[in-house]
Amino acid sequence: MHRTIAISVNGTPLEVPSGATVAAAVLQAGATSRVSVRGEPRQPLCGMGICYECRVEIDGRPHQRSCQILCLPGMQVTTE
Amino acid sequence: MSEVFDVVVVGAGPGGLAAAATAAETGLKVCLIDDNPAPGGQIWRSSVLKGPSADAAGWMRRLAERQVEVRSGCRAVVAGGLTCAGARTLRLESQRGYADIGFGALILATGARERFLPFPGWTLPGVFGAGGLQAFVKSGFQIAGKRVVIAGTGPLLMAVAANLRAAGARIAAVIEQAPWPQLAQFSSWLAFSRPGKLIEGAAYGLKLLGVPCRTGAWVTRASAAGAEVEQRLHSVTVSTGRDSTEIETDLLAVGFHLVPNTELAQLLHCRLEHGYVKADAFQRASVERIYGIGELTAIGGVEKAQVEGRIAALAVAGRFEDARALFPARDRWMRFARRLDAAFALREELRTLADGDTTVCRCEDVTQKELAGCRSWREAKLHTRCGMGPCQGRICGPATQFLFGWSAPAPRPPLFPVEIAALEEPFAQAVVETGQPVSSSST
């Protein structure tokens, strides 16, 4: 078995494989990443750090591109 | 504090890895910077289940042997001061903050991104880029049992479909907009000129046995189910121009081939030609000591990127004869790139996919009808904020170019939204102004 990491997405515990990105964890949690200017729910799009649709709050830091950041044990991810 | 390297390579995909290793093996001091969490670029992205790609690992061993400094999770945001005058320094951003780096030569290997074309429903949760969805799956998103439609255009679609199927996805359909005769012509050219590539394609085909694959068809709409706040993709409408069908699906992966990431090159005043960085036979861009390789010079894939990376590195080292020996291989892959472009050219019908209410700029939620009255990218920005969100037009720029024929002017610093600290501090004085590769030093 692959090693897993325990994080939380919007307060709910989630186990992800070691090496997973925060964006993958957000998708795995079934969450949307942000709410658009006009109030539409959005999920990550490009997967390569370009589109900024994946931005979420990580450990209190807002507007982080979740697709370019790896999950670390205990990480707290908050989405819109 | 600013460290100076003989060569800085930006982008750790196949081209950047080849360039960094080749340069280091000639004895130069090299730093490789990359925005992603790990080297390999998009095509050699490591998988949480299968580990790093063998190809990337091979190059990484060579980098380690030569003590190449690899900085992942790091990107250039400003070049040579806010005015970009005399740019021989890059300001880098990482999770740790900002740092400056000086270079004797700069090899740009910033690769490409997917082209996205707006259509009704493309902003719904459940709609991803084609390469995008593959990246999420490699990065830990479990797709087993989910129904996926893969659509758009380009050789990436078949590869993504095969890989997602291997990860347990149920591929509902692969929808390629290019017409079959155009693809058949490309295939027969491949059979003579690039049999390896044809076999690669056929292997994907075999892995997709039983999957409905359509050519000359495109997605015209993604439809949602669920309450307004919890809207999710439910189905897609596929058209051939004559008839249309609806396919129920959990996920849609859609991308319209690739566009080069030329922003850093433009910030450094490198000239573009037909949207690509103009490079000479030794991969030199129009600005002294800056080189452009890989997808930046034409969308041609891993082989072209690697040979161009080696040529650029050898040219930096002054080993022009060794570089010249690689020209025939590079030129062959350049012909492949041109054939790719023609085979997957976008059809006219795609220009009318967006209706008035379709979002074109996702960052600022600007719709097609708001843009339709504008005459230029500049006017659109001023009147609607199109392209002024965090992606800075990287997604809607190529879309509006296709939809309205607009071309975006060269980007201004910073290349991405940054914290104010990135702009306040003065640049360190480690600016290299000699024509020779500099010896390693730091200030």
Percentage of helical residues of chain A? Answer: under 10%
Unreliable stretches covering 5 or more consecutive residues of chain B: 83-87, 429-443
| Mean pLDDT figure of chain A | 96
Count of all domains of chain B: 3
Under CATH, the homologous superfamily of the largest domain in chain B reads FAD/NAD(P)-binding domain
Structural class of chain A: mainly beta
**Main structural class of chain B:** alpha/beta
CATH topology descriptor of the largest domain in chain B: FAD/NAD(P)-binding domain
Task: Give a structural overview.
The complex is a heterodimer of chains A (80) and B (443). Chain A is mostly beta strands and 80 residues long. Chain A has one domain (4-78): Ubiquitin-like (UB roll) (Roll). Chain A has one helix spanning 22-28, and strands spanning 4-9, 12-17, 34-35, 41-42, 55-58, 61-65, 76-78. In chain A, a hairpin with a 2-residue loop joins strand 5 (55-58) and strand 6. Chain A is globular. Chain B is α/β, with parallel strands linked by helices. Chain B folds into three domains: 2-113 and 259-340 and 419-442, 3-Layer(bba) Sandwich (FAD/NAD(P)-binding domain); 116-256, FAD/NAD(P)-binding domain, CATH 3.50.50; 348-404, no CATH class. In chain B, helix 1 packs parallel to helix 2. Chains A and B meet through helix 1 and strand 4 of A and strand 8 and helix 3 of B.
Structure keywords:
heterodimer, A: about 80 residues, mainly beta, Ubiquitin-like (UB roll), five-stranded mixed sheet, two-stranded antiparallel ribbon, 1 helix, 7 strands, globular, B: about 450 residues, alpha/beta, FAD/NAD(P)-binding domain, 3 domains, eight-stranded mixed sheet, five-stranded parallel sheet, about 30% helix, about 25% strand, disordered C terminus
Short description:
Chain A is mainly β and 80 residues long. Chain A contains one helix and seven strands. Chain B has three domains: 2-113 and 259-340 and 419-442, 3-Layer(bba) Sandwich (FAD/NAD(P)-binding domain), CATH 3.50.50; 116-256, 3-Layer(bba) Sandwich (FAD/NAD(P)-binding domain); 348-404, no CATH class.
